[in-house]
Structures are given as structure tokens and as C-alpha cells.
Design goal:
mainly beta; Jelly Rolls; eight-stranded antiparallel beta sheet; eight-stranded mixed beta sheet; 7 helices; 48 strands; hydrolase activity, hydrolyzing O-glycosyl compounds; glycosidase; Glycosyl_Hydrlase_16; glycosyltransferase activity; Chitin-binding_1_CS
């Protein structure tokens, strides 16, 4: 509650104010002063331009239409693009910004000044953006009671804020509002270094689905639209209407302000402060502002016409019109009802427009309730107007925790901004060491356990031996080398076969034909609590019916104490669980503990059949780092990796989340964003493609041995050293293990096109393998047997009379029907067995014998990095700019490979009991 009281600010405005009619919801303006300003007062002229609220005006068309979004970068070398509010009539092509107060050009920047006993300065963009990105490179003001703001504000009072209190130069306060409705849950802080002496780039990324607040390119806080539903009002309480950019400085610490305002602002303002003594004013410094319009072609976020206006007083995004109405008033007497009123005749074009007479009607909203700003339409220089950063009164505002003001009845919904309370410990903002936390520092990821993170793929020879199966010499497949018709399906490991080769992971681009692979079961939202393994099918028994099992396993999963253990017994290659259905964008959360020990790797990933991939990986020798990565069609790029820091991942359950939309990926830990990647930043000029994951993917969780002695040197070093098969977990439990308690899958809610889930299966209609080649339809997903393929789905299907007979497994040395997780290794076929187990791990991986070592100890990418393998991180850079602050990044991406020799049933029971002793 930090809004200066009306009486004093009216006096400070220095204008001959008219006693204006007030306006609010349910109390609209009269026809002779039809426009309700953002400060809740009625008038004409500038009252009808930026900030005019159509819901409170005489009629919806009282306000002039809003100039439509035009992407721009303003470098404030001078004030040529800045118009005073008293001269601006709505032509956004004549000025990019409108000012109130005393902006001053200085040393390649604009100063937002606040001289003694003034109410500061505001700059507002003349055009509106309907979603998009805005960046402001700036320094804030300083001193008790001095407040600096960078916000987006719509005419119906949707708002997204950064605010800075001059008594605390290490905190950026963030907030958002829907139609000015206060909610103390909406606030959150980001910590950073001295905001007065240092330029920082503050960014607001705003889409129809989310808001991200970033500092210097790092996400400090996020808010999803899906989390803003209000059951009482039956509305999404999320900013959604076209907004102006506003930057301001104003006095939160005026002695006559509400107590909560003054306390929040750091105390009463000192008009004899050193900045007043030396410079003549308090000041914030803005060097550059970039506005990027959202790229919707139609509907919310479009910018096809030349203006926005509202067709309904609901003021939601479905009531906004993108059209071609005029935005320019004829004079300060004009309104939306008569746009040309007072327009000069042609012969008067060179004559200055006369300002309204003193004591006349309100034509310029003053930036404060009741205070009319100076009309400079006839003056040579700008200045003197009251600050448009004006603020809510809050006499009843209590003070919240950590010195922040709470929300009280004085929070007036018609004021300029609506931060009626902020909590320094907002759940959406702050977690452990993750990123830009409310506890003080930006982005916490730690240095990687080893710089040698590139080629961590187990070698083919040893993993084939470890498979313990009678492997068939499989035909290899890759781009340009497709499978033969008798073994038409190319598995995710780059080998040809039938049966399970044609299910999860089957790559249609490398198969005999696109329809060789069975269609993929469509996304079904679900939460799996692993109290037991009832929903888990062994890969040798699963034939593609996602309704019969939510997960398919390879290796030895074990139920234990309300969770599933992904186990890795001695000399095995671990265990993988993969979802049977695919999500085409969406959210996935996994509550889990990782494995531990040198050489032990745990993974939680999304992987599509064309090898789009989004990863979390954890090295057991470093239990305080979550490594993240992504790939487009398996193409390695060392810029794609990054780390998130957190507390002991073996002993503590953490909730790891991947939020994936057509526009971005966010990696979260315990609800806090640790890293983000925008699709718009992935354009490849050479290939003319967005190199961004975009095709339906399965969820996979696995444990695997990165530290096998025969693995590539880079793999072993990245994994923390050679694996110790006599480690304490092997001695006590009988295996290394990761613990998965719960997985939640939320499908993306697109009605059509990318991200839909209207049918029962996905398949590809083109070998490009991009999201525009995916079909959402109703093809069958279930094979008749392990001899079947997409070309003959019913092959080997049991006749009705045989329904109670077990299916016979293929003969030893027969065709490949179950992909083994390693090149050439056929997994165990358990289709005729009573119990699950013994299958090869489907998390498995590229060999890297030819991987050289790059600079700084990182392994280089060699010919051993095979593009047809499970994952493709053939390189990573420990200084990726996309990650959270300095120490963030990391590197290549290893996956579990191969098949394993089964642990005995007795060993599994003994091991489970042994866990109680750990």
C-alpha cells in the first residue's frame, strides 16, 4: 500500500486542478467528460488516451482505440522519441513514448527525475502490446522512500510489475494483477546486485499461458495462467489484455502517506538527501527498452490491424478487437465519441494549439487522483507534470512480514498499479539454491562434477556382453539407411526388428516406411503413485495397449515403501521405466530421489520417437546438481545444457518438473524455475529450422552405470569416476537404486494442431519429423504379437480359442522382437513368463570410442557419437548463457545402455529388506 494521498499530491502537481468527477466500476463518467483515466477521474483529451478504462467510462467507445503493438528498441541517446503528455494526441508514429514530469537526457540514457517536493516522472509507451517480451536496461533510484517501477499496465488494469525500493538495492519486487484485483499471493522477490550503481536488464516475458520475470537473461520467477483460476468468479485471474510499458520514479515515503506505504518504501523520504544536494533530484537511469510483440496470427496476441479496442465491458482477452480504427484525437477537447472535435482547420496547421483555460475541463490526467498535470501544448519545453506512476492510498494497509506492506482496504482498484501486498517468500519465487531466490542471490547452479561431460556413452562391446541374452546380429538403421521390410522397425537404439521394436521409441524416419512403426498412444493426463507395480508392464509382455499399463519396464524395478526403486545390481546396466502414452507438450512432474556413488547416473527425460528430447540427469558423485539438456532430433549442441543446484538428491525427495509448450521449456525443482529455453532462440539459419523439441514424447526414468571401466574416458570422468561394484549400497541393498514416489503427467490443452490430444494415437505423415507432420487421429496402437509391425498390426494374433494359452517366446537366435537398449543386444522376451524382470534397460546408450578430449578437460565429440542412439548430447559447454548465472552449466548427456543380467528373485527380496538398514 504505497500510494501517496490525494491532497498533497494534488498540491505538488503544481496545476490548477479541476474538481473532477470520480469514476469506478458501477459509477461511470458523464457524457460531457466521458473518459475514465487510469487514476479514476473523468475528462476529455488525454483522459481518453493511454490508461482510459472503457469499463468505467460513459461508454465503451468513449476511449480512443489503442495503437497496436510495434516491435521496437529505444536507445535513449536523446529525447527525440518522447512527447510530453500535453502535446500527444494518440499518433504513435509521431512518438514512441509519452512523458509526465521531468525526463532528462544524460550520457546516452534518460533520467527519470524527482526534484525536491515533486512526485517524480513517468515514461509510457504510446503503443500497446498484447503479450510479448519487454526488456529494460536500467539503474534504479536510491534512498529511503524513493521507488522506481517498470511495469506493463492495460486500460482495464491488468498489470505486471517490477518495483524497486531505494532503501534496498539488492531486491527486485515483482507482482501481477488481473483487472486491478489485489491478491497478496501474487507478489515475489528476485535478488540481485546493487541496482543503483549497476545496469541490469529486467525482462517481462508474457504469453497467453505464463509470465516470466527475468534479470540479466535468467528467470527469477514465473507464473502459469493455469494456476490462476478463481472458482468464485469463474475467471482466469491472469493479465490478458493489451498493455502499455511504463517506467517511473515516485515518492513512496512522503510524510503524509499511509504508514504501510512509508514502511514498505523504507521510511520517510529525505528531501535533503545527497542526490538532491548534488544533482538536484532523485533519479533512475534508463538506457534502453526493447519491445517484442507476440506472434499470434489471430485472436489473443495478434497485431494485424492498427488499433485495439474492447467490444464488451468484461475486459477479458476474448473481448479485445484487433482492427483498423483511428487512434488520433483532433484536440485535447476530443474523445472517442467525437475523435475530430477541436481539430485545427488546414489554414491553422502552423499555429500552436492553445491550452485549455485555467479552471477549464480536465484534459490531461495528472498521474495522481485529482491532480491535473501541466499542459505543455503551447510550451517549448517539457516538464512539471505529475508522475504517472501514481499510487493507491492505503490508510488501512497493515505491514506484512519482512517489512513489506500488507494489503488493506485502502488498495483502490482504479489506481495506476495494484501491488497491495508482497511476500518476500512467495512460493512461486524461491527455492533452496535454485535461481534468483528471495533469500538473496540469482541462479544457483554449481560447477559440474567434471568438465569432461561430453561423450559419456557406454562402449558397445562390454554392454553387449552384460546383456546376458542370446543376441541376434541386428541390422543397423540410421537416416539414409532404413530397415528392411522383414524387420521394418528402427528402435531408439538404431537397430531393426519387429514387435517391441515397433512400439515406444520406433523412429519412422529410419524404418522401412513411415507406417512401419505402430501409432503412439495419445496423451492421457495421469498421476501414478508407485504404491505397487500394478501399472507397470515388462517390455516383453507389452503390445501397445496403454489402457492396460501406464508404464513399461526394462531391468529390475522393485516396489518398496510406497515407491518404485529403479535398481542396478552388480555388473548390470540398470533399469528404465517408460510411459506407455505420449504427451505432445505438457507438464511432467517426478517426485524422486536419485542414486548415489561414483559412476552412478539417474535420469528423468522426455524422448520422442524422432529423438526430440528434454532431460534431467544426476551424477551420483554430485548430489547437489541437476543437469538439464534438450535436443532437436538428436542433433548435439553444446549450448543446450545447463545446471540447477539443490540439496542432497539421494536423501531428499525433490519434485522435478518439465514444463513444455510450443514456445518454451522450463525446468523446475520444487515448483521453482531453475532454467528456461525459448523456442524463438533456437532458429538455425543453416537448416532453416527451429531446433526445438516439438514432437510427442514418452516420459522415461532410469538408472545406469556411467562409470563402467570400459566406457569412454569422458563418460567416466563426467560420471564421477569408475563405478565401485562393492559400494555400500551394493553391500547392504544388493544394488544401486533411485527412488520414484510419484509421477504426474498433464497434457497440453491445444484444441487443434500442435499439442492436441483429440484422437487415440499419434503418427507421422512425413519423414521431416517436425510438429507439423504429426497426425492426431484414431489408428490402432496395439500389436497382435511380438511378430507384428505397423505394416501388419495383427500378425501372430492369438485366435479366440487360444486366448487362455500363453504366447510362446521367439526361438533363441530368431528375429529381434524386443529392443535391448544397446546396439546388437536383444532383451529378454518374457511374454511367456509369469513374472516380469530380466529385460534389458531401455535407457541405453551411444558408444564413444573415438571421442577426443576438448579444451578445459571436456571430451570432444568423436565419430563414436552415433546420431541414431538414444540421446544425442555429443557436446556441452560449461558456460551456457541460457542458464542461471555464472556457475550454471553443464554438459553432455549420457543415457543408460544395454541389457542386464537379471538379479535372482531371492536377491531382490533380500535387497528390499536390506533397505531398511540403510
Amino acid at each position: 500500500m504505497r500510494w501517496a494521498t490525494k491532497a498533497l499530491l494534488s498540491a505538488l502537481a503544481g496545476a490548477s486542478a479541476v474538481l473532477a468527477t470520480k469514476c469506478s466500476l458501477g459509477s461511470n463518467c458523464p457524457k460531457d467528460a466521458p473518459c475514465c483515466s487510469q487514476y479514476g477521474e473523468c475528462g476529455t483529451g488525454a483522459f481518453c488516451l493511454g490508461g482510459c478504462d472503457p469499463r468505467m467510462s460513459f461508454s465503451l467507445d468513449s476511449c480512443a482505440p489503442e495503437p497496436i503493438c510495434k516491435g521496437s528498441t529505444t536507445k535513449f541517446d536523446n529525447l527525440d522519441g518522447v512527447a510530453d503528455i500535453g502535446k500527444y494526441l494518440g499518433d504513435a508514429s509521431s512518438a514512441q513514448w509519452v512523458s509526465q514530469g521531468e525526463p532528462a537526457a544524460h550520457d546516452g540514457s534518460v533520467l527519470l527525475t524527482m526534484p525536491k517536493d515533486s512526485v517524480g516522472t513517468v515514461l509510457a509507451s504510446t503503443s500497446y502490446l498484447w503479450y510479448g517480451n519487454v526488456k529494460a536496461k536500467m539503474k534504479t533510484g536510491r534512498g529511503a522512500g524513493v521507488v522506481t517501477a517498470f511495469i506493463l499496465l492495460s486500460d482495464v488494469k491488468d498489470e505486471i510489475d517490477y518495483e524497486f525500493v531505494g532503501a534496498d538495492l539488492e531486491t527486485a519486487q515483482t507482482n501481477y494483477y488481473f483487472q486491478g484485483i489485489p491478491d497478496y499471493h501474487n507478489s515475489g522477490n528476485i535478488s540481485l546486485s546493487d541496482t543503483f550503481h549497476n545496469f541490469h536488464e529486467y525482462e517481462i516475458r508474457w504469453t497467453p499461458d505464463r509470465i516470466d520475470w527475468l534479470v540479466n537473461g535468467q528467470v527469477g520467477r514465473s507464473k502459469l495462467r493455469k494456476d490462476t483460476w478463481n472458482e468464485t468468479t469463474q475467471q482466469w485471474q491472469f493479465p490478458q489484455t493489451p498493455a502499455r510499458v511504463q517506467l517511473s520514479i515516485w515518492p513512496g515515503g512522503l510524510a503524509s502517506n499511509a504508514k504501510g506505504t512509508i514502511e514498505w518504501a523504507g521510511g520517510e523520504i529525505d528531501w535533503n538527501d545527497e542526490d538532491i544536494q548534488k544533482a538536484g533530484y532523485f533519479y533512475a537511469t534508463v538506457q534502453e527498452v526493447t519491445i517484442e510483440c507476440y506472434d499470434a496470427k489471430n485472436g489473443p496476441g495478434s497485431h494485424n490491424g492498427k488499433s485495439y479496442w474492447y467490444r464488451d465491458a468484461k475486459g477479458t482477452n476474448d473481448t479485445v478487437v484487433d482492427g483498423d480504427k483511428n487512434t488520433v484525437l483532433g484536440s485535447l477537447d476530443a474523445t472517442g465519441l467525437d475523435m475530430d472535435k477541436g481539430k485545427k482547420k488546414k489554414k491553422e496547421d502552423n499555429e500552436p494549439q492553445k491550452p485549455p483555460k485555467k479552471g477549464g475541463k480536465n484534459t490531461i490526467p495528472g498521474g495522481v487522483n485529482g491532480a491535473q498535470g501541466q499542459d505543455h501544448s503551447g510550451d517549448a519545453k517539457s516538464g512539471g507534470g505529475s508522475s504517472g506512476s501514481g499510487n493507491k492510498g492505503g490508510d488501512d494497509a497493515g505491514t506484512g512480514d519482512d517489512g513489506q506492506s500488507g494489503s488493506g482496504s485502502g488498495c483502490d482498484s482504479k489506481s495506476f498499479s495494484q501491488n497491495c501486498g508482497a511476500n518476500a517468500n512467495d512460493d512461486n519465487n524461491n527455492n533452496n539454491k535454485n535461481n534468483n531466490n528471495g533469500n538473496g542471490k540469482s541462479g544457483g547452479s554449481k560447477a559440474s562434477a567434471s568438465a569432461l561431460a561430453m561423450m559419456r556413452w557406454a562402449t558397445k562391446a562390454l554392454l553387449s556382453a552384460l546383456a546376458g541374452a542370446s543376441a541376434v546380429l541386428a541390422t543397423k538403421c540410421s537416416l539414409g539407411s532404413n530397415c528392411p521390410k522383414d524387420a521394418p522397425c528402427c528402435s531408439q537404439y538404431g537397430e531393426c526388428g519387429t514387435g517391441a521394436f515397433c512400439l515406444g521409441g520406433c523412429d519412422p524416419r529410419m524404418s522401412f516406411s513411415l507406417d512401419s512403426c505402430a501409432p503412439e498412444p495419445i496423451c492421457k493426463g495421469s498421476t501414478t503413485k508407485f504404491d505397487n507395480l500394478d501399472g507397470v508392464a515388462d517390455i516383453g509382455k507389452y503390445l501397445g495397449d496403454a489402457s492396460s499399463a501406464q508404464w513399461v519396464s526394462q531391468g529390475e524395478p522393485a516396489a518398496h515403501d510406497g515407491s518404485v526403486l529403479l535398481t542396478m545390481p552388480k555388473d548390470s546396466v540398470g533399469t528404465v521405466l517408460a510411459s506407455t502414452s505420449y504427451l505432445w507438450y505438457g507438464n511432467v512432474k517426478a517426485k524422486m530421489k536419485t542414486g548415489r556413488g561414483a559412476g552412478v547416473v539417474t535420469a528423468f527425460i522426455l524422448l520422442s520417437d524422432v529423438k526430440d528430447e528434454i532431460d534431467y540427469e544426476f551424477v551420483g558423485a554430485d548430489l547437489e546438481t541437476a543437469q538439464t539438456n534438450y535436443y532437436f532430433q538428436g542433433i548435439p549442441d553444446y549450448h543446450n545444457s545447463g545446471n540447477i543446484s539443490l540439496s542432497d538428491t539421494f536423501h531428499n525427495f525433490h519434485e522435478y518438473e518439465i514444463r513444455w509448450t510450443p514456445d518454451r521449456i522450463d525446468w523446475l525443482v520444487n515448483g521453482q524455475v531453475g532454467r528456461s529455453k525459448l523456442r524463438k532462440d533456437t532458429w538455425n539459419e543453416t537448416t532453416q529450422q527451429w531446433q526445438f523439441p516439438q514432437t510427442p514424447a514418452r516420459v522415461q526414468l532410469s538408472i545406469w552405470p556411467g562409470g563402467l571401466a570400459s566406457n569412454a574416458k569422458g563418460t567416466i570422468e563426467w560420471a564421477g569416476g569408475e563405478i565401485d561394484w562393492n559400494d555400500e549400497d551394493i553391500q547392504k541393498a544388493g544394488y544401486f537404486y533411485a527412488t520414484v514416489q510419484e509421477v504426474t503427467i498433464e497434457c497440453y490443452d491445444a484444441k487443434n494442431g500442435p499439442g492436441s490430444h483429440n484422437g487415440k494415437s499419434y503418427w507421422y505423415r512425413d519423414a521431416k519429423g517436425t510438429n507439423d507432420t504429426v497426425v492426431d487421429g484414431d489408428k490402432n496402437t496395439v500389436l497382435g504379437s511380438l511378430d507384428a509391425t505397423g505394416l501388419d498390426m495383427d500378425k501372430g494374433k492369438k485366435k479366440k480359442k487360444e486366448d487362455n494359452e500363453p504366447q510362446k517366446p521367439p526361438k533363441k537366435g530368431g528375429k529381434n522382437t524386443i529392443p535391448g537398449g544397446v546396439n546388437g543386444a536383444q532383451g529378454q522376451d518374457h511374454s511367456g513368463d509369469a513374472k516380469s524382470g530380466g529385460g534389458s534397460s531401455g535407457s541405453g546408450n551411444k558408444g564413444g570410442d573415438d571421442a577426443g578430449t576438448g579444451d578445459d578437460g571436456q571430451s570432444g565429440s568423436g565419430s563414436g557419437c552415433d546420431s541414431k542412439s538414444f540421446s544425442q548430447n555429443c557436446g556441452a559447454n560449461a558456460n551456457d548463457d541460457n542458464n542461471n548465472n555464472n556457475k550454471n552449466n553443464n554438459n553432455g548427456n549420457g543415457k543408460s545402455g544395454g541389457s542386464k543380467a537379471s538379479a535372482s528373485a531371492l536377491a531382490m527380496v533380500i535387497a528390499a529388506v536390506a533397505l531398511f538398514c540403510l
